[in-house]
Amino acid sequence: MKRIYVGNLSWSTSDEELREFFSQYGNVNDASVITDRDTGRSRGFGFVEMDDADGDRAIEEANGASLGGRNLRVNEAQPRGSRGGGGGGGGGGRW
After folding, report:
1. What are the backbone dihedrals phi and psi of residue 39, each rounded to the nearest 5 degrees, phi first?
2. Nearest residue to 67 via CA among 4, 18, 5
3. What is the domain count for the chain?
């Protein structure tokens, strides 16, 4: 099973539209647009789950494709803990 990140979604894209769009690449097990928990409005990205082979094809072919007038950013979703970032400051202060 492959979990796919889909970014740059139109604010009006629904779960069903996302599922329908990705179904052209194979069987979609799940599709959801992420919404703000306070307002319920779309946050402009979502996730799709597909079988591995279909997911690889979807990532390759859907990245840059247009949905709702927006060019999608599509790649394999990363586990929550390994999104990078972070930083850690450098010391400072006196010796």
Report:
1. -100, -20
2. 18
3. 1
